[in-house]
């Protein structure tokens, strides 16, 4: 998906989304873009003026890093080995 196109669509549609629901809508949009192999840097550039998308992207990246740290903890844990 073209990130610039997504940005234009977001700009047009977000006014129809209640202010209190925009953060969740932004999270869903970021998730869709990431799931469709859009680069986080491209998303950041395309949505540079939108606080909701920037916050959603930052949260997504933080969650991704937390998941990777959790995976590293399990792979380094020797307690699962058979004796």
How do the strands and helices of this protein lay out in sequence?
Layout: H1 3-13, H2 22-35, H3 40-46, H4 51-76
What does this structure look like?
- This protein is an all-alpha fold and 83 residues long.
- It has one domain (3-75).
- The protein is 70% helix and 0% strand.
- The N and C termini lie far apart (50 Å).
- The mean pLDDT is 87.
Termini separation: 50 Å
Low-pLDDT stretches: none
Beta strand count? 0
- What's the domain count? 1
Classify the helix fraction into a percent range.
Answer: 55-70%
Percentage beta strand? under 5%
What would the average pLDDT be, to the nearest integer?
87
Largest sheet: none
- Number of helices, counting only DSSP H or I runs of 4 residues or more: 4
The 3D shape can be described as globular
* Order of secondary-structure elements: HHHH
Please tell me how large the radius of gyration is. Answer: 17 Å
- The secondary structure category is mainly alpha
Structure summary:
This protein has 83 residues and is mostly helical.
Main features:
83 residues; mainly alpha; 4 helices; globular
